[in-house]
């Protein structure tokens, strides 16, 4: 006999009741419920006065059914009778109207399609397999797994800016993690591509992945929404064929098309003018030369490190306005948080690093704060560039960060709008960010994005990491916590499509349409859209909220397992000292600064994190 035992958390669904002015009775009992004709039983804790309609409502929510189909039968004396909705639930019940206390999953004859074998696509494939489901196909146009960000945008010098603890494919409560993580918190591009390949093979994903295969076209088949499916025209080895699928997920990677600008006088520059991404540029050409970097986002910060690595003699980082760069320790602090780190604490924790370069980070355009700096909002269009070398390069005078714009170029000179001319610049690296690709909208026939879904069709799902920063609390800086949520959300709605009806009828999800004037496809959304989508999903679908309670603490657990504070500080300090030595060897003779963070300093931040969360909980309890 299969026995389902509900834990005490279900008690929150019952309303204690009293008679007249008497206080509510909190006496408990256990109800044993058996499904008619099925060898399955549920053990359910309730109050002695819990009503039948309350238990039916619980089953409706748990199983995604209409409670009107349920009948509860119990024995009263020598006869069997129906336990009516307004009555107290009997101790022993036979349930009619369902076949199981587990929710029934929808069956699909056709496979589910996943376009993109990057981080999210591989994570979704793992999610299907971990549920014992094999009717899916992953397509990717490249010869190897890994995705656009690492194959197309990164180069061999690129490294992970956030920590391995929250950026690895195994990320799941039931899985392990990369074993070299304590000594290598920030793996290189090639190490990450090897990781994706190794884990895909270990988890048995490769038989489900069709590499060197492009998806060129999607057709919606059928006019009845409930039964429609899709035809995908795929191309492999220059031959096209058609595959019928039940659903389509597209994970196009981060923004894929570099923002381009052409400056007056480029033809006279007589040097290298390149976009500092992928492997198109040989960074050894920077050795012994001055370099201009246009931009100040995450890729620009990464290129400062690369210029130090290749011993460029000087870096001029030119931007119209500075965006906040985040020290490694602050990223670690955010990702290890059990709940969140306030924007106020995030800014405070940056102080040791910004003080080193005599910059007040509170004056940046993206910071909105009250006078006491207790109520803080960070709002910028690009994500945080994370790393320590930028600050070290600034400290030694190797990097100069200039707020200005390029007016024109001449031979080995950059002329700025302010009137300043920077001479002896044979290399310009343009890092102005990326745009989305309208071809992705076209492929998915996307007119309006509803949350992450195309045209309110729960079987067409498209996710790219949201743009920028817009928050007063931060729960993380990395990708795997999002990847597992996005994967499990899609799988849930494929299993239980009735939950989609709730999301659509509520109208609660944020929407987005293409903005051609600003080069913004419909699938490219900002951070607030992503946050509101996740809030709506967890609010409207209890099963996803429950799953979030399990996945939510995982980042905290993994960070302390993979990067305990002492080893993390040691790794960061080791690299800090190595980069200091490199800069000294290049002729910058300032006394190397000690690493600005210690275990004691960071433990103080963690104490503040917990104190702030406790304070917020107390305020909420008083309001409630």
Report on the structure:
- By secondary structure, this protein is an alpha/beta fold.
- 32% of the residues lie in helices and 23% in strands.
- It has an 8-stranded mixed beta sheet, with helices on one face.
- The longest helix is centred in the last third of the chain and has 25 residues.
- The two termini are 43 Å apart.
Could you give a short description of this structure?
The protein has 624 residues and is α/β, with parallel strands linked by helices. 32% of the residues lie in helices and 23% in strands.
Taken as a percent bin, the fraction of beta residues is 15-25%
Strand order of the largest sheet: 9-8-7-13-31-30-29-34
- Radius of gyration equals 28 Å
Residue stretches low in confidence (pLDDT < 50, at least 5 long) are none
How would you classify the helix and strand content by structural class?
alpha/beta
Shape: globular
Task: Please summarize the sheet with the most strands.
Answer: 8 strands, mixed
Number of helices: 17
Q: What's the overall average pLDDT, rounded?
A: 93
Q: How much helical structure, as a percent, in the residues?
A: 25-40%
End-to-end Cα distance: 43 Å
How many β-strand runs? Answer: 34
